Amino acid sequence: DEIEALSSIYGEDWCVVDEDEKIYCIRISDCLDQPKWTLCLQVILPPGYPTAEPPIYQLNAPWLRGEDYTELANSLEEIYIQNLGESILYLWVEKIREVLVEKAQSSDPVEPDIKKTSEEVDEDNGDDFLLDYPPVQEDPVKMLSYITSESEEGKNV
Question: Strands 38-44 and 14-18, how do they pair?
Answer without folding.
Answer: unpaired
